[in-house]
Amino acid sequence: MENNGIHVIAFEDDASRKILSIGEFNNSTTDNALEVLKVAELEAMEVNGLIQAINTDRGSQFYPNKKDKNGEADSVFRDYLESK
């Protein structure tokens, strides 16, 4: 079955198994992941409160894949989570 290049990003509540937010995109980017996460955060407030933890794969939209000469890497997704 061909997926026509569509990427799905979803956030699921582990306790209830409810899909809090889902999106279909041409690319799995950090911006797209954050867009779906922000909707999930609002939905979580309606269901059971703040999101306490997020489990992801190690995709580049969640984890930086390039480090500078000091071994440091910028992660927009991580920075967003740490700002909460």
UniProtKB/TrEMBL annotation:
InterPro entries: RNaseH-like_sf, RNaseH_sf. Gene3D superfamilies: Ribonuclease H-like superfamily/Ribonuclease H. GO terms for molecular function: nucleic acid binding. It comes from the Archaea. SUPFAM superfamilies: Ribonuclease H-like (SSF53098). This is Integrase catalytic domain-containing protein.
